[in-house]
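Suppose a colleague, Dr. K., hands you the sequence of a protein chain of 393 amino acids and asks what its three-dimensional shape might be. Before reaching for any lab equipment, you can write down a predicted structure in token form. Begin with the sequence itself:
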Amino acid sequence: MARKRKNNTPVSGPRDDMTPAEHQAPTPSGEPETAVRPRVLVVLACPDLRDAVASHLAAGEFDACLTDTAHDAMLRLTKATYDAVLVQVRLADGPGASLIRKIDESYPGLCSILISPRPTLEEASLALRSGAADLLGTGMSSTEFVDRIADALRRTASAREREGRIRKLRKACRELNKARQIVSSQVGSLCDDLAAAYQDLTDRVASAAAAAEFNSLVRQELDLESLLRVVLEYVLAKAGPTNAAVFLPSSSGDFALGAYINYDGPKDSAETLLDHLACTIAPRLEHQTRILHLSGRQEMTDALGQEADWIDDSNVIAFACHDQGECLAVVLLYRSLRTPFQDAFTRQVPGIAEHFGKQLARIIQVHHRHLPKDKWGLKPGSLGEDPDIDLAA
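The predicted structure, expressed as tokens, is then:
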């Protein structure tokens, strides 16, 4: 791992374009030049945790710089270059998540990782929201601890490369826009075509980046409850305040409510409404292969039948998640007609549906890998009355 400048460009170590001979170029003394050890800034309030993390890093041949406050960590970042920053969830002078946000603002692209003695689901969600690359516990082995840091560094480097490509593409789009302005005085129709192509390209890049972001989030989840939480949090962040429900199929062929967000519905009737939708709307969407965008009573009735009258005064996005022809989930998003879903979000929905379905399939495979592959599916009766195959259970 090459040491990096504050702008995240390598200052030493092998380059990607070096030949094998150049990687081992001899020094003036005739000996091969050794690789630079990755430098890690460790910000832990607890001395025992600092000792444990320092021991893990030493075993992994990382250079560790130890401190105990967010204030001192920010000072050290101004004076030296680091490859990663490990931050305890709670520090003496503030939450670790706040420090990670400051680091992300001041040093974009620097790999930040939250550290907790005993990681919880709430802390994992906090790490995700703050922009941390990972959440690590100090109780794991040195090998696993170091491997997780190395993996986070690789993912962060990959994200930096992707952002670099997007910046180059945006620069090319800006140059294309300048050329469009020159041509516009002569060929108006050509300018319109170029503008449309530019917008389409920008939208495609944004959608691809959003799909990659969502995929990187859900691929880390191999627990159904955690996956549903992450998916709904992501939808809420991208779509804004909205009602949402995820219905999961069972081996009996029925659908059950897996998770939901009740934004503006009456609390005392929310579950009754969602149970009704699970019984009536979800089965109608099970074999739907396209994303439905519905608005108002007539469109709702035409697409979903009379049973949709419970939410017929809403804007609705509905889709089913499939893998190898099997429906693994039905997702329903709905909110007031006064607040339609933005185009930027609707363009992301196909990517959400695709990657959500794939991750659900991975979870099924992981949870049932002890079974023959022909028993991994969710078709009714495929496992007799085995309740373990009921994804909604």
